Amino acid sequence: MKMIRRLYDWVLHWAATPYGTLALFCLAFAESSFFPIPPDVLLLALCIATPRHSFRYALLTAVGSVLGGMLGYGIGHSLWGAVSDYFFRYVPGFTEAIFATVQELFVSYDFWAIFTAGFTPIPYKVFTIGAGVFEINFPVFVLASVIGRSLRFFLVAALIYRFGPAVRNFIEKYFNLLTLIFMVLLIGGFLVIKYVF
Length: 197
Description:
Elements: H1 2-13, H2 20-31, H3 40-49, H4 54-90, H5 96-119, H6 124-133, H7 138-163, H8 168-196
């Protein structure tokens, strides 16, 4: 936990440097396949510092994250046999039990599993690498990632843009709950459309 906290502080310090935007892209890219700290931390700090650029930061984060997800897919598809021990031992969020659950989800819900991981606090990297390991259709993977990641980061940017720094503590405290509520409403809406209309 101390190491994670040090990484968190290290990520956050980039907001006060001229390299914050580049660091945001690199963080979003790395978090999608191996880095433990989500890019929301730096995205929040940059949006609060310059609210008028919030949507630009969200776009940059989404692009970096999706490209990093493609790297994760490649790791899973081509290198998993060589690197799986490293991920299970050293990368937070990776366990054999979680990976088995991911496989079960992919069997029935490939698009929705990736979309949900991209939008919610579920570790996205487990799904990007899992998508490669279990040979999920690549265009489906990319589409679900683009939609899920963009919704997540643009939601943060929109809240900061609209409400300013006052909303930061609220987002940090309730982000996981808010995304889960949104997912329940979204999936519930699709079920209503499917079974009622």
